[in-house]
Design goal:
This protein is α/β, with parallel strands linked by helices. 37% of the residues lie in helices and 18% in strands. The longest helix has 19 residues. The site of S-adenosylmethionine has 20 residues, from β5.
C-alpha cells in the first residue's frame, strides 16, 4: 500500500485536500496513506524562522536547508519505524523536469514518496543536492509555493493505486494514458439547451460506439494537441 508524505509550511491545506472525495475514501479504506508535515517544526531558532536573505543579494527570501533537511530525516525515520523503505524524495521546483502522465506512472511504482514544497524565492540548493532524488515542475509557470504542485503529483499518483478508482483500470480509458486525449463524454438528459447527444451513443451497439470514440479521440488529439498526435503517430508507426 502506497504512502505519500508531504513536507510543507502549509500541512493543513494539503491534508484537507487529500482527506476529501476519492483520496479521502481510499485512505479510510486503508488503500493509501497520506501524511503532511510542518517544516517550521524543525527550525532551531526561537522565532521559528525558516528563511533568510539570499547570498549574492536579490529580492525575496530563501528557505534554509536545515529545517527542510531535518523534517525529511524525521519523515524517513517515521517510515522506517513502520517497516517502510526510505521514501523516494521529490522536490517541487519551477526548474524541475516537466511533469506528465509518464512521471505519474513511474512514481506510482514506489512504496513511499516524500514530496517537498518550497515557498518564498525557493529553497537553498544544497538541501536538494543533499537529500533529493529528483525535482519536478508541474508546468512552465511559477507558483507562490510547492503545495499545489505536490497535490497534483500526489493526486495523479494515488489515483493509479489498486482500488482507489471505483472502476478497476478506469484510468486506462482517460486522456494521456495511451498518448491520446479522451473522446467527449455525455450524460442525461438526451437533449440539453437544444444540443443532442451524438446518436451513436444511444444505439447500444458497442462496436460502433468504440469506433466512434476512437475516431473522436484521434481527431481531438490531432486538432488540439498536434505535439501529442505526432508522438502517438511515431510510436504507432502511423503516417
Ligand atoms: N525562484 C524560483 C524560480 O525562479 O525557479 C521560484 C520560487 S517559487 C516563487 C516558490 C516555490 O514554489 C518553489 O520553491 C517551488 O516549491 C514552488 N513552485 C513554483 N512554481 C512551481 C512549478 N511550476 N512546479 C513545481 N513547484 C513550483
Amino acid at each position: 500500500m502506497m504512502r505519500i508524505d508531504i513536507a510543507t509550511l502549509f500541512p493543513d491545506v494539503c491534508q484537507a485536500y487529500m482527506n476529501e472525495s476519492i483520496l479521502g475514501r481510499a485512505a479510510r479504506k486503508g488503500l493509501i496513506e497520506t501524511h503532511c508535515h510542518q517544516i517550521r517544526d524543525y527550525t532551531l531558532n526561537k522565532q521559528k524562522q525558516v528563511d533568510d536573505y539570499p547570498y549574492g543579494g536579490g529580492c525575496g527570501m530563501v528557505m534554509n536547508a536545515q529545517p527542510i533537511y531535518d523534517c525529511c530525516r524525521a519523515i524517513i525515520r517515521q517510515n522506517w519505524l513502520y517497516g517502510r523503505p526510505r521514501p523516494h524524495i521529490v522536490f517541487m521546483t519551477a526548474a524541475g523536469a516537466r511533469y506528465d502522465e509518464g512521471h505519474a506512472r513511474r512514481l506510482a511504482t514506489y512504496d513511499n514518496l516524500l514530496l517537498v514544497c518550497g515557498h518564498y524565492e525557493g529553497m537553498d540548493e544544497r538541501v536538494i543536492q543533499e537529500i533529493g532524488d529528483e525535482e519536478i515542475s508541474i508546468g512552465d509557470y511559477v507558483l507562490t509555493g510547492g503545495e499545489l504542485a505536490a497535490l497534483v503529483v500526489a493526486d495523479s499518483v494515488l489515483r493509479l493505486q489498486p482500488g482507489v478508482l471505483a472502476e478497476p483500470q478506469g484510468y486506462q480509458e482517460e486522456s494521456h494514458w495511451n498518448g491520446l486525449l479522451e473522446y467527449p463524454q455525455y450524460t442525461r438528459p438526451e437533449v440539453w439547451q437544444g444540443r443532442a447527444v451524438p446518436p451513436v451513443l444511444l444505439t447500444g451497439h458497442h462496436a460502433n460506439i468504440e469506433k466512434w470514440r476512437a475516431q473522436q479521440s484521434l481527431e481531438r488529439t490531432r486538432t488540439r494537441r498536434p505535439d501529442l498526435y505526432a508522438a502517438w503517430q511515431a510510436k504507432n508507426n502511423k503516417t
